[in-house]
Amino acid sequence: MEISLKYLISTMFKPKKDSYFYRFIGIKNKDEYNNELKVIQLKCNEIKDKVIIFDNEIPLNGEMELIQYIYNELLTMDIYNMANQDIVIFDEYNINNRFLNALQYSINLAIQNEKFFNDNIRNNFITKLIVWTYTLVKEMSISEEINPKVVYYGEIERHEIYFLILLYNMGFDVIYLNPLKEEYFDEIDADKLSILIKEIQIDTVDSFEERCSKGKLSENIETITKQIQSEIHQELFVDTGMFKPWQFRGGFTKSALLDTILEDIYIYYNEPAKLREGFKVEGKVVKVPCFFKKIDGEHLDQFEYQKMVRYCIESSNTLFFNHGNISRDVDVSGDMFKLMFCQLSDGTFDIEEIKKLDIYRFKKYSNEIQNFLLNKFNEVIKRKDLYEENLDKEASLKLLVLVLALNEEIVRLIDNFDFVDRVPKIVIYLNSEDGIIDNMKLLLGYIHNIGIDIIIFNPSGLCNISNIIKNERFNNTRLQNINYNSNYKNLTKVNTKQSVFTKLFR
């Protein structure tokens, strides 16, 4: 999981053993960025003795006498062996020793990178690091309960970067924030101690105080907390095989056809998506292995056929249709033509404009499910491997009308789809020589693209869906007996009781 500033806010004030060093360059949203800085400011004020905030600079507050004294002492020291020099800033030995080792690291790094012109310039740099530590860090409360922290916002000079590295090596959590640009870190941080998180948008630097004054706290803390919670759940559960209920609400699916034989229905059909072969999660996209199977004819043994039909129909989370009209067959007419003005240059449709129309009927559902249904439509019309003929402008409009008029029960089936758990199912049983009209076949392609299991029982074998849907997008099985007079009601009357001999020898 890529760390976000929101996530870091949620964890930076909790007990943590290992220190971290993050650079956040650029912004996602100006208002949200100001709100996040406001939260950081508030949290830092609660533990003032454990936090330093630098606003566009690190002030050099040491008196001239102190600065001169440290500089003179350096003249007699081995700067390549600072850990053994007589420098005591912190009363506690372990903390002072960590400081000396961190100081040595920054000195060595600077000598390697800066190629100091002479010893005076080098010693001025080392003096600055020591003075900064003495005046800014000495009085901080450094304990094992919570890592001390430094937040640097804005423009930064090279020497200041070495000081941040020093603090990180002492055990500080370090956060560098710059809404505009990256500065010098790639040149200086040779060992990649810091991790860069970069956003596409940029904004003026201003000052930390100015941004915090524009941030809003009361109405944004709850929103930020909810977003933090979502990201924490993402980190805890993804790639572990464990998933929190509705973890991917607001995510997307990618359907994958289960290439199975008929007997596999009894093996995989009632398995949750996460246990099916081919299941995969990439970010917020869940690859859902699903059935799309048309079964022509019947078993010679009516009991076996009835058993299979009942097994599919009686599975949980299933909609059963004893005909091919799974939804309303709506023509493009009248107000429907308004949808044409929502089409974009790439052939897809502007989902926000669709939502504004009078004919739009998904408003009572959550934004997540509305966006999912409409974005899935846009995905379908761009696919080249689903339908026999690519959808032109007229066919795309027809499918959109059908999707917007989708059977309410199917919409609710999708709304109740958790992506990783129970896969929703549609079972169709066609009586006699009944078929499925082309518009419903278009809809079946759309429904399959969502990742829903589809089973079509076609005893007469006369229903052809390959005139609309490509053969490779569904499995077709032909059984021994073609029955042109099959009827679901008659099938349910088949005697399912078996004799002892039948049970023994079947």
Number of helices: 18
Strand content: 5-15%
Largest pleated sheet: 5 strands, parallel
The tally of beta strands, per DSSP, is 13
Radius of gyration: 33 Å
Spans of at least 5 consecutive residues whose pLDDT stays below 50 are: 218-225, 497-506
What's the overall average pLDDT, rounded? 87
Structural class: alpha/beta
What does this structure look like?
- With 506 residues, this protein is of the alpha/beta class.
- It has 2 domains: 5-233, no CATH class; 300-506, no CATH class.
- The protein has helices spanning 5-11, 30-46, 64-74, 93-114, 119-137, 158-170, 185-188, 208-214, 221-237, 265-268, 302-313, 351-355, 367-382, 393-404, 408-415, 438-450, 488-492, 500-505; strands spanning 21-25, 51-55, 149-153, 173-178, 195-198, 252-257, 280-282, 285-290, 292-296, 318-321, 425-429, 453-458, 475-478.
- A 5-stranded parallel β-sheet has the order 2-3-4-1-5, covered by helices on one side.
- The longest helix is centred in the N-terminal third of the chain and has 22 residues, at 93-114.
- The radius of gyration is 33 Å and the shape is elongated.
- The protein starts with a helix and ends with a helix.
